[in-house]
Structures are given as structure tokens and as C-alpha cells.
Give the backbone structure.
Amino acid sequence: MGFNCRINSNILTSESYLIEIGDNVTISDHVSFVTHDNSISKIVPGKSDVYGRIRVGNNCFIGAHSILMYGVTLADDIIVASGSVVTKSFSEGRVIIGGNPARIISTWDKFADKCRDCREIVKNL
């Protein structure tokens, strides 16, 4: 776990040692990290589980209700859109990925241009 992280999910896994999180990462609510699955036992007799690391680079944002599968590595500076299922690694930074399965849907520059005229909502609490 890196520095300056905001974790808003209860990350439950029996293999926490397979998860690496960089610096300045935000993980929204209801995000799942799947470090293994047992489906191989149905296909290959005598096999029980498939395991893999999940690596999240620095300065990433993982949107609510996203799923990161075993074997995935995210480069620095990636935004994962809410509800995405990340089944493969992304080595290009400054991109936004989303969907099921996740793919590149935008860049940071395009998103910044799109939001240039957006207003920030501030609530008095």
C-alpha cells in the first residue's frame, strides 16, 4: 500500500499479499479485487485454483462497483470508470478505461477539456 491513498471499499481477499497499490490512489466504494478463482477445476481435472497479482500504479482512481481480476496491472495515472470489469492489463498512462471488459474510452486531456466548463458542486454541511 502506497502513501496518500483513500480506500473506501472493504477489500476482502484471502490473498492480500497479491495486491499492490501505489501512491495517491483512490478506491471508491464496492470495488472488488479478485485474486483467484476456482473455475479451472471444472475444465482441468486435478487443478483447483488460478491465482494472480493485481497491481495498481500511482495516481489512479478506481470507480465504484468496479472489479479488478487476477493478473491485472494498471500503469500510473489511470482512471477506471464506475462499474468496470478489468480483465487485462493497461500499460498506457493518462487514460480512462471502462466497460465490461474494460477498454480505453478516453484520455485525461479529453476529459479535462470536457469538464472545463463544468461547475463543482459544493454542499454546506
Summary: The helical segments are 40-43, 108-114. The chain has a mean pLDDT of 92. The two ends are 31 Å apart (CA to CA). The chain is about 10% helix and 30% strand.
